[in-house]
Write a structure and sequence with these properties.
With 208 residues, the chain is of the alpha/beta class. The protein is built from seven helices and seven strands, in the order H-E-E-E-H-E-H-E-H-E-H-E-H-H.
């Protein structure tokens, strides 16, 4: 009985330490900007409302435009499919916003099928490789940085995160996302991020 108790206590301590280290890694990545020259800027999609980017998506797109204007990459890839009942995909709403900001249509590539970060990155990776593009800047919210970097690596992309700093997700809401990301990263490193995304969707997570 004492041996079982010690083994259980040891296992719980190991899990606690693993989650603690993972949280620190996720938190540290959220505060780092790895903006550098790349072949493409990939914007992770999120909610749009009847063709208009949500405030969170708008913050990501504005940051992508700033990176493009700095000539860090020649093209911007917008991602995200259509939620049930929506008339527009996240990618279409994003592309229209970029065009209104002065980004030429030729500099905007669209991934319109993904309903999760993994699906969007996987689909984008496929058509980017067809164009011999593997070096990308990943734009999302800060809390998302570590996981999308890990996803990009699993997909064979040389990805570096440059998160927006103007997202309305902040304070206690951001803290909740950091905890969620910690769990997702902890699981993804064990079973793979493709499988983690499948599990996340099956339990109703969806989205980013």
């Amino acid at each position: 009985m004492k041996l079982l108790f010690k083994l259980t206590a040891g296992l719980l301590l190991a899990v606690f330490l693993y989650l603690g280290v993972t949280f620190i890694q996720v938190w540290t990545a959220a505060r780092r900007d790895d903006a550098r020259s790349a072949q493409a800027i990939v914007v992770l999609g999120t909610a749009q409302y009847n063709g208009q980017p949500s405030p969170v998506l708008k913050a990501r797109l504005d940051h992508a435009v700033a990176l493009w204007e700095r000539k860090l990459a020649p093209v911007i890839v917008v991602t995200g499919g259509r939620a049930p009942g929506d008339k527009f995909t996240e990618a279409t709403a994003s592309a229209n916003y970029l065009l209104a900001k002065g980004v030429p249509d030729a500099d905007v590539l669209r991934e319109v099928s993904g309903t999760s970060s993994w699906q969007s990155l996987a689909a984008a990776a496929n058509f980017l490789r067809d164009r011999d593009i593997t070096k990308v800047l990943l734009v999302s919210d800060p809390f998302h940085s570590y996981r999308i970097n890990a996803m990009a690596d699993e997909l064979g992309l040389d990805g570096h995160s440059s998160p927006t700093r103007t997202s309305p997700i902040a304070g206690t809401t951001e803290a909740k996302y950091l905890v969620r990301e910690t769990v997702a990263v902890a699981v993804g490193r064990v079973i793979g991020f493709r499988r983690e995304a499948d599990v996340h969707q099956k339990v109703g997570g969806g989205g980013a």
